[in-house]
Amino acid sequence: MDLATLTELLSATLRIATPLMFAALGGLLSERAGTFAVGIEGMMLAGAFGGALAALATGSTAMGLLVSLLAGTALALVVAIATTRFRADQMVTGLAVNILSLGLTSFLLRGLFGGRTPVIRLPTLPAWPVPLLSEIPLLGPVLFRQPLLVYAGFLMVIPVAVFLGKTRTGLMLRAVGENPEAAFAVGTNPQTVRILAILAGGAFAGLGGAVLSLQEVGTFTDGMTNGRGFIALAAIIVGRWNPFGAMAGCLLFGAVAALESRIQGWGLPVSSYVVQMVPYLVALALLAGIGRSARMPGAIGVPFVRH
Description:
70% of the residues lie in helices and 1% in strands. The mean pLDDT is 90. The chain is globular and about 65 Å long. It is an all-alpha fold. It contains 14 helices and two strands. It has a single domain, classed as ABC transporter involved in vitamin B12 uptake, BtuC (Orthogonal Bundle). It has helices spanning 3-32, 40-58, 61-85, 90-113, 139-143, 148-155, 157-166, 168-178, 180-185, 190-216, 228-238, 243-265, 272-276, 278-289; strands at residues 128-129, 145-146. One of its GO terms (cellular component) is plasma membrane. It holds the Pfam family BPD_transp_2. InterPro entries: ABC_transp_permease.
């Protein structure tokens, strides 16, 4: 493998991992507060659709990002109300939200643009080279010649890690995820904390969807998240609910996906369907190995009931 090919492969790894990063950080906040983030796939899809629609209508990528964030948050609000107010099963609620998002975005796409396969065309976000640093051999093109959302996705790991590990509010969120009764006893309202964590998770997931529609492909198609939300969940588990661990998991899946697309381009005598399964097979293998010994938050999936 020559230097140009290696550079291209590593750059693609970061770009592919970016939407996973946003979704994983959002899911991490939700799950550390005690709510399964199964609906993250649907929130990503809503964000991708909302961002594409807003960018097309206004001609503004910034407006597209804002609407992506709001679309993911709106769907997260459904999860928050169902799981905290009505104590609905978190798994079932998450799956219902995913199905709702898939159907609703397809319906709205055809209702707004007509035809059996409507097509939206958007300009994608260009690379934003960092002066001087982008000229460093190998590392420059890989780390410092990327679109802005790639930088944002990976830099967000730091404030999320600091928030969860060093701030009073973050410690309170973690306490709710481990033992909501104890957190309530010291004056914290677990339901409020969980609602805010779910909404923050939806906002992050919406931005993850925006990376797909506004940065990667410049369009919206039915089910375009294609299971990325579930891959992000796998990254959370493999990373043991730690932001930097989740980032490592996203990068691993990104590297596998980048390699998968190159294998198809090399024309090897392997079915494309088999090659496309590789990232998901890796996810299953990691979950069966590393994920099996991971300890999830103590009260995740358990609704809080005030006695």
